[in-house]
Design a protein that fits this description.
single chain; 132 residues; alpha/beta; three-stranded parallel β-sheet; 3 helices; 32% helix; AB_hydrolase_fold
C-alpha cells in the first residue's frame, strides 16, 4: 500500500485502559453527542427512553428507534473492547491525516500519537469542520 488516509482517528495511548460504559452511560453520551438532554427525574436511560428523547428533539439520531439505538450501543461497546486490546503495527509509507478543527477541544488527542507507528512523514490537513 502506497498511501494510508486517516480521518481524525487516534491510537489508544500506551497504558491507557478504557472502561466499557454501562447502557445508561452510553445512551447519555449519545444524547450529549446529538446535542440533546435528558431529564434526570425521568429515571435511568434505556434504548427506548433515549429513542423517545431523540425523536422529540429531532436532529442527529432522531429517526432511530429503540432497537437501532440498542444495536448502536452494542457496536460502540464492542469497538471500545477491540480498541483497548489492539496495538497498531508500523506503517511504512505515506500517511494523509485529515483533522477536523472546528470546535476541537484543547484536550483532544494530537496527530503525534501516531509517530511510533509511522516510518515516513505525515501530511496533516486541517478542515474547518466538526467531527460530527
Amino acid at each position: 500500500m502506497e498511501l494510508l488516509a486517516m480521518l481524525d482517528s487516534y491510537p489508544a495511548q500506551r497504558g491507557e485502559t478504557s472502561t466499557v460504559p454501562s447502557d445508561e452511560q452510553l445512551f447519555g453520551e449519545l444524547l450529549k453527542y446529538a446535542g440533546a438532554e435528558s431529564d434526570p427525574a425521568a429515571g435511568p436511560l434505556t434504548a427506548s427512553s433515549t429513542a423517545e428523547l431523540l425523536g422529540q428533539q429531532g436532529g442527529l439520531f432522531g429517526n432511530f428507534d429503540a432497537e437501532t439505538l440498542a444495536r448502536v450501543g452494542r457496536v460502540t461497546r464492542n469497538n471500545m473492547v477491540i480498541d483497548s486490546e489492539h496495538a497498531p503495527g508500523s506503517f511504512d509509507g505515506e500517511v494523509l491525516f485529515v483533522r477536523a478543527v472546528r470546535g476541537r477541544p484543547q484536550s483532544a488527542p494530537e496527530v503525534e500519537l501516531w509517530t511510533p507507528y509511522v516510518t515516513e512523514k505525515m501530511d496533516v490537513r486541517e478542515l474547518a469542520r466538526t467531527t460530527s
